[in-house]
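In this supplementary section we document a worked example of the pipeline. Step one takes a protein sequence of length 218 as its only input; no multiple sequence alignment statistics are reported here. Step two produces a three-dimensional model, which step three serialises into structure tokens for compact storage. The input and output of this example are shown verbatim.
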Amino acid sequence: MDTKSPLQIQAYEYLKDLILSGRLDPDTLYSETRMSAEIGISRTPMREAIQCLSQDGYIDVIPSRGFRIRQLKQSDMLETIQVRCAIEGFCVHLVAGEVDTPKCKSLFANMQKLLERQEKALQGKKEETVLKHFMEYDHQFHMSMINYVQNREFEQTFQRLMYLIHLTTVSALSVPGRIQGTLKEHQEFFEALQQGKGERAYHLLMQHLMAPLSMEIV
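The serialised model returned by step three reads:
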């Protein structure tokens, strides 16, 4: 969105927020005219924003009719998880080989804080709030390793997959007991990674990432 107009960015962020907050119905066909009117802009920046959202995987465009919110399919989940396994698995081996460096120690300090925030999030009383906060810290926990590698292609790939990752995470963490299980898996993985046990950390991460594939969530 760096080269886009302010109105296009406004429209993109507006629609993205509606999607991620669950305020748009996946079964409803939406028009660019209606969305333009809602925020008081012309159809051109809205149309361009819709095209960008389609490219980023948030919506499916139906030519001459409008767009629908993208729904998670088993094939989408499988392909997204496979990409994550490939990229995050590489990152794990790289991090495990640099555990004594100042850069890596800084990463571990950040990951430890995120684990603590995940644990604290579970103490919330409202289920929706618990899920929202835990998901946020879950995402940051995984992205901290991606950012550590400083590979722009990795980061751009994750950006394109962001909504599918979001849908997969929401579905998986909605399974009773899965949030608690996720925290335990994060803790075990982090312990192995921090100790430089690359093979064990990699094995634990693969199990963790592929867990949703064995769940009845789609």
